[in-house]
Queue: 2 jobs
Job 1
Amino acid sequence: MSLTAQHWLKQLHALDLKKPIKIMNVCGGHERAITMAGLRGVLPTMIELIPGPGCPVCICPEEAIYAAIQLAIQEKLRVVAFGDMLRVPVNVGKQEIRSLEQAKAHGGKIYPIASPMEAVQIALQHPDETVIFFVAGFETTTAPVATLLAQGVPDNLLILLAARLTYPAVKMLLDTGEAKFNALIAPGHVATVMGSEEWQFVVTEHQMPVAVAGFTTESLLAAIYSVIRQQLENNIFLDNCYPQLVSTHGNPTAKKYLAETMQVVDATWRGIGKIANSGFVLKNSKLDVKSHFFDYSQEARKYAGTMPPGCECAQVVLGKIYPNQCPLYGAACTPRTPIGPCMVSDEGACRIWWSGGVRTGRFNFLR
Amino acid sequence: MCLGIPMQIVEIKDFNARCEAKGVERDVSLFMLQHEPVNVGDFVMVHVGYAIQKMSEADALSTWELFDEMLRAAESVDG
Ligand code: SF4
């Protein structure tokens, strides 16, 4: 741990904390950095760090994944998706195809990609085929996709859009009184794109401390220190502990292309339901796969939209329980045999805790 | 998917750049940075192949250090 990190730790231990404070983060990158640095073990015990809605793969609608599978299998279309999406299971009978990975094994033309530009390359390589780009992600992924669309894409590339915004889930938790946290660490790269101002509502509407953090231990500790100080001194404001990249208004070009190509709408989150203004639809419906093919996401199915049976992912994502409070954690569910998306995705809290070495289950942390 | 990686620009052609991080080279789109001047040698934060913001060399280095630490930590636990 660097000198500055040790400095922040010292400062944190010097604080006169009389009651516990629960600080939620909303970014898989933050959760990974916190877990890998072992911050929970070195902070004063009064400070709880809660992983929250920071995994777009985890809340990607089950119906959208099902639709992507059907487009590959029934319509025999070429489907490209971010690699993380391939192993996420949908809720179908044991005999049916449960994931894009299984669809691929059954002859589906499915390709994992790491960048939206690869989707264009694949479409160009197969000019006489329709290529579907299945897009799940938060703003840091959606803005590049919007930029790609604004630049123009080949006619044979269609979009299956399941992109989501980050802040509306936090807003929903606060508005409904379901929030299990007293302070918030806002996501550094989402704020880089969208601007720190997106998080101002936490202060204005809910008088809750919030600080944008980067991904180094120093930046995270600085943000943790900031929100605690804000609370102790009863001086609540939106702090920016990642000024190296984050500005008030964000990246103007990215926001321009987002506004040009997509519209913000109410959208469903897997296992959670509809959240106001939390998703995107394409403004140009010609690019939308739904304008050209049957909308398989609407197909009536038992358990459509829910998490796999027994999986507590939705509760984990909303910061209501810790990963290892799920009865399946480390038992039926491990990265080798994942039951739910939170154990599949690199940004899922279950996966992160497992790779961080948490092997024991069910200690009751969220009081 | 959501991991941001700092990279250094080694070559620019229109809005496409060849970028490098720790010996690994990638094609990166600069289309999202049209509002500011970008030059060879600059450091940028890259998300899914797109530069989302310019950054200083010092910040790029501290983020790379963090990745090294995380990799070491990940390798030291099995599973
Ligand atoms: S441990 Fe597995 S089953 Fe439980 S919440 Fe996490 S992903 Fe779901």
Job 2
Amino acid sequence: MNSTSVLLTSMSVQMKQTFARNMFKFTLFVGPFLITVILGEMFKHSTADNFVAYVVLGSGLWNLWNCIAFSSAGDINRERYNNTLSIIFSAPADFRLILLGKILGNTLLALCSFFLSVFFATVFYRHPIIVTNWPLLIMSLLLAILAFIIMSIFIAYLLTLSRKTAIYMNCLEIPVALICGFVFPIENLPQGVQFISWIFPPTWAVRLIRLSVTETTYGLLENFVPLIITSVIFVILATLLYRIIFKQVKVLGTLDMA
Amino acid sequence: MPIIEVKDLSRDYVINEGVFKKKMKVIHAVKNISFSVEKGEVFGLLGQNGAGKTTTIKMLITMLAPTSGTCKVLGYDTFGQERMIRTRINFVFGGEYGLYRRLSARDNLKYFANLYKLPKGTRDNRIDELLKLVDLTDRADTRVETFSKGMTQRVQIARGLINNPEVLFMDEPTIGLDPVGAETLRKTIVDVNKLGTTVLLTTHNMYEADELCNRIAIIKEGEIITLDTPANIKKKLAKKTSFTIEVEGNSANIKDKMQSMEELSGVSITEKDVMTLEDAYLQLVKGSNEK
Ligand SMILES: Nc1ncnc2c1ncn2[C@@H]1O[C@H](COP(=O)(O)OP(=O)(O)O)[C@@H](O)[C@H]1O
Ligand SMILES: [Mg+2]
């Protein structure tokens, strides 16, 4: 009961606070449009033939990832500058629940962005939307969101520990989108980079999503199993990381700007 | 058992200096301080900017780990036994930060009430009570970003009292407040203390410390240089006694007359305390570290 209320209020505070920010409105509304146009033009000049897979879902996923992971990352630092981070950290409520609430709040907002991307892609390029397997699409989208949430938790913990991480994070936005194959299949990447792709749960979730809009029916298990395994690994890593940050944050004194 | 027990407490910060060639530097922010605070006291930490007041408070409120020494609140270690302490204490930092500025005062208080696990039934009543206490009932539902400094500060105070803490830590709570606002806050502190809350506060304002605190520790460059009641601190440093001389009638050449010590009739001499706490403080902070 108490945990739920911590989770829910963190979520609602996060959404109210975020929605009042102009930059976020930009990420939410203008971002989907820009990314859709860029991917749409890339698609026209490429040999790829599945519009839904590469433009509609590509821009949708990219935006989803942006809104969940990067907003959550930015928020930690905003709260650090605003001196609320140290206060919520020192409150009796479990800090993990507070962060999870924030990430879930961002996820809800991110879904708006996802649907906007899909809407732009459909309206501007007027391609018919062909989905061969709706149940698979919906299930794999849910799994992708779960994978994003897990990654965001991991990133949020790292950011709580150090303010410098935020700078690196901002440089990672595009590489991560590419490495996880949001835009084009990871098979187009150099072999060495593909190994990196395999570590991240979103890579497998994205491949599952693509399967659902193409004719192929094989390869389900080959993607599903690694998705579960990598997700579990990240959950375990995040749990261990939390034990470390809970202490280190106080040893290093990085919770506020003083 | 003292409510707050600090023994040989130290805290260092390690910082990187330089842009290209990084150099590690250690700042000794708090050096081997010891003091204890009993239940029901108002205890003051006085010191210049950078003396180590905020660092000490942060260690006490489970926000920062000590580098060495003991730091106990309510009998528990502030680093390692946070869980036992956090529901029973709260803190207020001066300044405009520390609130969600895009939310209303009420929404801020609701959020923190939930983080402090107030039961739903009592939560809304408590918030109304506190809004009334800090005189913000009329503006409760406007965004904090539209508030003046003083109003923002009052929301912070309400936040600090949300869980009816047994110990309240206040870091320069009246900073940025106008004299009337500061006076009101001092009254609130007295009231809260009367209801049983132990208070530890830091301040620059000597008048405030003198008025509010049962005991004061003056801290300089991370070390406590004096710890006593305001009255004793003043007494200890007052080496001279001054006289106020009121002269009836003709005051011309009074100096000469005094020097010659003649005709003292018509002159009334009253003994007065020349040392204010401010004088004592300045003498301590500027002068040699005599204890
Ligand atoms: N996070 C930090 N990193 C590095 N140095 C710090 C940090 N916080 C405080 N200091 C340094 O520690 C000393 C004490 O600071 P502080 O406790 O804030 O003093 P006060 O509150 O009395 O003004 C100062 O020299 C300050 O620069
Ligand atoms: Mg300070």
